[in-house]
C-alpha cells in the first residue's frame, strides 16, 4: 500500500496526472484516496473541481498557460504553478498582481538529461520545449524572487515517460541537487 511506502514522509502528496485519464470516476477514486492532482489545462481544472479536489493539492504544469487559466487556478487556490519559461513567470506575476494575491511557483528546470526513451515522450533534453534550461534557472529564480506577487516554493524537473532505467532519474536529481546547493 502506498501509505506504507511513504510513511517516513508524512507530508508527501502524490499528484495524479489528470492527462493520464480524465475520467471523472477514476479522478474521484484518486481524490477519495487523498491524492493530489497535476493539471495542464483549464479543462482539467474544471474536472477536478467537479470531483471536489482539495485546491491545496493541485499543481498546474504545462506550457503556454493563458491569463484566463492562471486566473481561474488562482481563484481556485491551487498549491502552485510549475513555471516553464520566463514569459510564463511574467504572466503569472501580472495576473496574480491584478487579482491581489501571491502565486506560489516552482521553476521547472530542464536538466538536459537523455532519459533513453522514445524521442516523442522525452522532455528532459535541452532541445525540448519544456522547462527552463538548467543554466538559466538561477536567473529565473532571481527574477522570480524580485517579483512582488510571486513566492518561489520549489524546483521541478520532468525528463520524460516510459523510462525503464533508473540512471536518468539519478542524473536528473544530481543536477537539481547541484542547483539547489
Question: What is the assembly state of the chains in this entry?
Answer: single chain
Task: Give the end-to-end Cα distance, rounded to a whole number of Å.
Answer: 33 Å
From the alpha-carbon coordinates, what is the Rg to the nearest angstrom? 16 Å
Q: What is the approximate shape?
A: globular
Q: Give the averaged pLDDT, no decimals.
A: 87
What do these coordinates show?
It is a single chain. With 181 residues, the protein is α/β, with parallel strands linked by helices. It is 40% helix and 17% strand. It is built from seven helices and seven strands, in the order H-E-H-E-H-E-H-E-H-E-E-H-E-H. The chain has helices at residues 2-5, 24-32, 42-50, 67-76, 86-99, 134-146, 167-180, and strands spanning 15-17, 36-39, 58-60, 80-83, 103-110, 132-133, 150-156. Helix 4 crosses helix 5. The radius of gyration is 16 Å and the shape is globular. The mean pLDDT is 87.
Sum this structure up briefly.
This protein has helices at residues 2-5, 24-32, 42-50, 67-76, 86-99, 134-146, 167-180, and strands spanning 15-17, 36-39, 58-60, 80-83, 103-110, 132-133, 150-156.
Which SSEs are present, and which pair or pack?
Layout: H1 2-5, E1 15-17, H2 24-32, E2 36-39, H3 42-50, E3 58-60, H4 67-76, E4 80-83, H5 86-99, E5 103-110, E6 132-133, H6 134-146, E7 150-156, H7 167-180
Labels describing this entry:
single chain, 181 residues, alpha/beta, seven-stranded parallel sheet, 7 strands, 17% strand
Amino acid at each position: 500500500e502506498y501509505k506504507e511506502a511513504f510513511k517516513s514522509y508524512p507530508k508527501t502528496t502524490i499528484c495524479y496526472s489528470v492527462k493520464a485519464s480524465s475520467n471523472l470516476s477514476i479522478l474521484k477514486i484518486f481524490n477519495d484516496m487523498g491524492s493530489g492532482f497535476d493539471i495542464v489545462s483549464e479543462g482539467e481544472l474544471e474536472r477536478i473541481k467537479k470531483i471536489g479536489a482539495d485546491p491545496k493539492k493541485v499543481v498546474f504544469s504545462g506550457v503556454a498557460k493563458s491569463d484566463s487559466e492562471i486566473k481561474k487556478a488562482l481563484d481556485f487556490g491551487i498549491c502552485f504553478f510549475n513555471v516553464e519559461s520566463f514569459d510564463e513567470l511574467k504572466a503569472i506575476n501580472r495576473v496574480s498582481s491584478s487579482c491581489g494575491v501571491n502565486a506560489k511557483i516552482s521553476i521547472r528546470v530542464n536538466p538536459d538529461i537523455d532519459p533513453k526513451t522514445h524521442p516523442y515522450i522525452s522532455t528532459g533534453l535541452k532541445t525540448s520545449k519544456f522547462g527552463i534550461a538548467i543554466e538559466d534557472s538561477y536567473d529565473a529564480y532571481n527574477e522570480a524572487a524580485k517579483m512582488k506577487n510571486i513566492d518561489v516554493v520549489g524546483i521541478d524537473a520532468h525528463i520524460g515517460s516510459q523510462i525503464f532505467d533508473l540512471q536518468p532519474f539519478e542524473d536528473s536529481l544530481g543536477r537539481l541537487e547541484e542547483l539547489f546547493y
